[in-house]
Amino acid sequence: MLTKRIIPCLDIKEGRTVKGINFVALKDAGDPVELAKIYSDEGADELVFLDITATVDKRKTLVELVTKVAKAINIPFTVGGGISTVEDVKALLIAGADKISINSSAVKNPDIIDQMAAEFGSQCIVVAIDTKNIDGLDFVHTHGGRKPTILQTQEWAAEVSRRGAGEILLTSMDHDGTKNGFANDIISELSTMLPIPIIASGGAGNMQHFKDTFTAGKADAALAASIFHFKEISIPDLKAYLGEQGISVRLK
Amino acid sequence: MRVAIIKYNSGNVRSVLYALERLGIEAELTDDWEKIKGAEKVIFPGQGEASSAMRYLKERKLDQLIKELKQPFFGICLGQQLLCEHSEENDTTCLGIFPVKVRKFPPIDKVPHVGWNNLENLKSPLLEGLDEEAFVYYVHSYYAELSPFTIASTHYMDNFSALLHRDNFYAMQAHPEKSGLTGEIILRNFLNLK
């Protein structure tokens, strides 16, 4: 049986792991390769590395990091952050990334989704969407959530799926950092509407939140960062709990 | 041990090299006939699209070479599909080692089939040490049908061939190089085949 995936997310800045609370305040949470190895050994199903470095050397640093991670771990991982061209994707996939994630660059130029999917296959193209509810409607935000757009989340999600995205990583900005649970209404809406997997992100505070996003939210995977980095929830405990709750997960 | 990984226009093969490195094996990525023929084990990875992969193999006559090989041979992901008879992906005639058809998942459930799924009905020394709790990582839109050569199946919408075996040819749809300890056991078992 296909299992629900648990995905720790490592926010990377200049080679170190950090986590933004509501996308602003940053705390150092360790060495990414070490952390990746720990999560992979603990039973994480996949990892996401999100690079928020803004320097010119960024691409080179990221390729080096991807190489180190690919050598160290035996589970799939996705890399995102500032990826905007087919060449960027190629360099990262060659270095050993399994998938790449694009966000603002896809909003700016939706054709790159088609180009990347045609070149590398849908299976390695994840489109990340940051969504925020404004007066009852859901709008896509870009640039780490700082820039609102006129795109409605449901319409944009349908478009990226049509253009060849293999998965959608949906982060609710309203829920991110609150620890009050995932945005299950919109997650469920997208998961039901679209033919591709939805990764729920933003709001995980306890183990039941994961159960809820897999049941009420119909999410295919759930992503979280700080609760894993600061050991508020351990992955083995979380998976044991989900298993007891009747959610299909990969136990060791 | 001399392990050759067949070099062709397939996607990321670096992961397979790294996985073997973690097992202490330095494999060579090559499209050289003699090197492939002389290797003790041959791995045929894959990621990408079937018809362009077949075209590339034919242009370099690697299709002929593969059919002639006698040492343990392991096709992974698209590598498994290319060892079958025919793929629905762009109506492609494949290598025909396995008389099996490769079909596209119907839109009944989400496609691609992405994530960890378990192996069932395991029957092969390649799967020694594993049971039906063994999970492997899948990411694919096409699958090989069940056949007498199926040595393990997986269920997604329907049962399909998770692994195939005929003579010296083994093949797996999931990615052993990304399947944690289970994948390491499968790769190690393959390397230990006589």
Automatic annotation (TrEMBL), chain A:
<dbReference type="InterPro" id="IPR011060">
    <property type="entry name" value="RibuloseP-bd_barrel"/>
</dbReference>
<keyword id="KW-0368">Histidine biosynthesis</keyword>
<protein>
    <recommendedName>
        <fullName>Imidazole glycerol phosphate synthase subunit HisF</fullName>
        <ecNumber>4.3.2.10</ecNumber>
    </recommendedName>
</protein>
<dbReference type="GO" id="GO:0016829">
    <property type="term" value="F:lyase activity"/>
</dbReference>
<dbReference type="InterPro" id="IPR006062">
    <property type="entry name" value="His_biosynth"/>
</dbReference>
<feature type="active site">
    <location>
        <position position="130"/>
    </location>
</feature>
<dbReference type="GO" id="GO:0000105">
    <property type="term" value="P:L-histidine biosynthetic process"/>
</dbReference>
<comment type="similarity">
    <text>Belongs to the HisA/HisF family.</text>
</comment>
<dbReference type="Pfam" id="PF00977">
    <property type="entry name" value="His_biosynth"/>
</dbReference>
<dbReference type="GO" id="GO:0000107">
    <property type="term" value="F:imidazoleglycerol-phosphate synthase activity"/>
</dbReference>
<dbReference type="InterPro" id="IPR050064">
    <property type="entry name" value="IGPS_HisA/HisF"/>
</dbReference>
<dbReference type="GO" id="GO:0005737">
    <property type="term" value="C:cytoplasm"/>
</dbReference>
<comment type="pathway">
    <text>Amino-acid biosynthesis; L-histidine biosynthesis; L-histidine from 5-phospho-alpha-D-ribose 1-diphosphate: step 5/9.</text>
</comment>
<comment type="subunit">
    <text>Heterodimer of HisH and HisF.</text>
</comment>
<feature type="active site">
    <location>
        <position position="11"/>
    </location>
</feature>
<keyword id="KW-0456">Lyase</keyword>
<comment type="function">
    <text>IGPS catalyzes the conversion of PRFAR and glutamine to IGP, AICAR and glutamate. The HisF subunit catalyzes the cyclization activity that produces IGP and AICAR from PRFAR using the ammonia provided by the HisH subunit.</text>
</comment>
<keyword id="KW-0028">Amino-acid biosynthesis</keyword>
<keyword id="KW-0963">Cytoplasm</keyword>
<dbReference type="InterPro" id="IPR004651">
    <property type="entry name" value="HisF"/>
</dbReference>
<dbReference type="InterPro" id="IPR013785">
    <property type="entry name" value="Aldolase_TIM"/>
</dbReference>
TrEMBL record, chain B:
<dbReference type="InterPro" id="IPR017926">
    <property type="entry name" value="GATASE"/>
</dbReference>
<keyword id="KW-0328">Glycosyltransferase</keyword>
<comment type="pathway">
    <text>Amino-acid biosynthesis; L-histidine biosynthesis; L-histidine from 5-phospho-alpha-D-ribose 1-diphosphate: step 5/9.</text>
</comment>
<dbReference type="GO" id="GO:0016829">
    <property type="term" value="F:lyase activity"/>
</dbReference>
<keyword id="KW-0315">Glutamine amidotransferase</keyword>
<dbReference type="Pfam" id="PF00117">
    <property type="entry name" value="GATase"/>
</dbReference>
<keyword id="KW-0808">Transferase</keyword>
<keyword id="KW-0368">Histidine biosynthesis</keyword>
<feature type="active site">
    <location>
        <position position="177"/>
    </location>
</feature>
<keyword id="KW-0378">Hydrolase</keyword>
<feature type="active site" description="Nucleophile">
    <location>
        <position position="77"/>
    </location>
</feature>
<dbReference type="GO" id="GO:0004359">
    <property type="term" value="F:glutaminase activity"/>
</dbReference>
<dbReference type="InterPro" id="IPR029062">
    <property type="entry name" value="Class_I_gatase-like"/>
</dbReference>
<feature type="domain" description="Glutamine amidotransferase">
    <location>
        <begin position="12"/>
        <end position="191"/>
    </location>
</feature>
<feature type="active site">
    <location>
        <position position="175"/>
    </location>
</feature>
<keyword id="KW-0028">Amino-acid biosynthesis</keyword>
<keyword id="KW-0963">Cytoplasm</keyword>
<dbReference type="InterPro" id="IPR010139">
    <property type="entry name" value="Imidazole-glycPsynth_HisH"/>
</dbReference>
<dbReference type="GO" id="GO:0000105">
    <property type="term" value="P:L-histidine biosynthetic process"/>
</dbReference>
<dbReference type="GO" id="GO:0000107">
    <property type="term" value="F:imidazoleglycerol-phosphate synthase activity"/>
</dbReference>
<comment type="subunit">
    <text>Heterodimer of HisH and HisF.</text>
</comment>
<dbReference type="GO" id="GO:0005737">
    <property type="term" value="C:cytoplasm"/>
</dbReference>
